[in-house]
Each structure stands twice: as C-alpha cells, then as structure tokens.
Amino acid sequence: MLSEQSAATVRATLPAVGGAIDVITERFYDRLFAARPELLRDLFNRGNQAAGTQRQALAGSIAAFAAYLVEHPDERPDAMLARIAHKHASLGVAPGQYETVREHLFAAIAEVLGDAVTPGVAAAWDEVYWLMANALIAIEARLYAERGIAAGAAAWREWEVVERVEETPDVATFRLRPADGAPAPAFRPGQYVSVQVRLPDGARQIRQYSLSGAPGAG
Ligand code: HEM
After folding, report:
1. Given ligand 1 and candidates 87, 91, 106, which is best to mutate, with the most ligand atoms within 8 Å of its CB?
2. In this structure, what CATH number is given to the domain that contains residue 120?
3. How high is the pLDDT of residue 150?
4. What digits encode the pLDDT tens for the residues 69-92?
5. What is the DSSP letter of 114?
6. Pair 18, 26: CB distance under 8 Å
7. Are 165 and 173 contacting, i.e. CB atoms less than 8 angstroms apart?
8. Are both 27 and 50 inside the same structural domain?
9. Which of 127, 129, 140, 144 is labelled catalytic?
C-alpha cells in the first residue's frame, strides 16, 4: 500500500508524468541501452524498439499502476501484474535488473521534468516503483520456482522444426520436436513459449509464440 503522504504527491504529479510519458520513455531507453547495450542486443525486442511500438509499455504501466493505487489504495491490479510477470519470466528477467531499470528510468524522469522533481516527488515515485517491482519480482519468483529453475534463468531447450504448415497467408504452424529426444513438457491452456535465435550479427533475439496444440509423443 502506498503511504498517505506519497499518495498525495503521486496524485498531484500524475498529470505531469503522464503528459511527458513519451519523452520520458525515449530518454529512458536511450540511457538504458547506452549503459547496457547487451540488453538491446540479447533481451529486448529490437524490432519493437526500432518501430517504436511497445516502447511505452514499461513506463506507461508504472503510471497506470500509480493511477490505480491512488484510486484503490487497498487493492492491486493483479491481472496487469500477472501479465507482465509472465512476459518477464518467459524472457528470464532477473530480480537484480530492476535496480538497473530504476536507475535509468528515474534519471530520465529527472532530466525531462527538471526542477519539478523535488526530493519529495522522487521519494513518492520511488515508493510506487518498488511496490510494483517487488510485486512483479514475487510473482516471477513463483513462476521460476514452479519450473524448478533459478530466478532469472530461462528453461531453454533445443528443438528441431519438423514441419511448417501455412494455415493462411500470414499464419503458420510449426511442428517441433525436442532435439535431445527427451519428452516434450506438459503445457497449460493459453500458454505461450519463447523461442530464441542467434542472429548473424551475434544478437540473441527472443520472440513469443502461442501453442496451438497439445504435445503428442515426441
Ligand atoms: C517495475 C519495473 C517494470 C515494469 C513496470 C515493466 C513493465 C513491462 C510491461 C508492461 C511490458 C509489456 C508486457 C506485455 O507485452 O504484455 C514489459 C515487457 C518487457 N520487459 Fe519489463 N517492466 C519492468 C522491469 C523490467 C526489467 C527489470 C527488465 C529487464 C531488464 C524488463 C524487461 C522487459 C522486456 C525485455 C520486455 C519485452 C519487451 C519487448 O519485447 O519489446 N522489464 N515490461
């Protein structure tokens, strides 16, 4: 729950933060990828970054979370948190990376909003950030534990494409088989999986795909 003092500050500054979210997002990613180029190369979707799509998702969801907290101080937007945490767990996002994101996000906010970011304003938004980050870290920890892997590790396996079916001009089904011959894992309805590929320039890019059928033998 957000402290009363922070709630008042966040409520008063939400319009300024929300109104500048585009510029804050731009400055945040510029700073993040300048300091940590490997995150753009190996973790974030370079296509989304180049197209500008998805860029607002991170900062925008923190502003949405803040707006939710000031309206419903005793509740949590669980559906939004679960969706983000599943995406993060599918990518192997690690708890320690939240400090990196915080550092560059807050530097971007200070750069864009300037003197409006007094120590009190910074402290209130820090509280919002960590309420959200800690909620995500906890859900992600449960997801990693369910798969029996260390927090921030991804359960990568090698698979072979054995068939490609063109379902429509822009939808294809790929039939896959574990390269090591071991059984395919069970799946849950609605589950998606991450596929990572090493590109010719050395980047590792990850994309998520829906499972369209239950795994059979092999
Ligand atoms: C409180 C902190 C964070 C918030 C609020 C947040 C929020 C989000 C949101 C809303 C999405 C889009 C989810 C979707 O597609 O449904 C997302 C995706 C993603 N997040 Fe986070 N995130 C946070 C921290 C982090 C950290 C620490 C990392 C790792 C450095 C990270 C890496 C990513 C990546 C790689 C994606 C996918 C982006 C893409 O493929 O274009 N996030 N995050």
Report:
1. 87
2. 1.10.490.10
3. 86
4. 999 988 999 999 999 999 999 999
5. G
6. no
7. yes
8. yes
9. 140
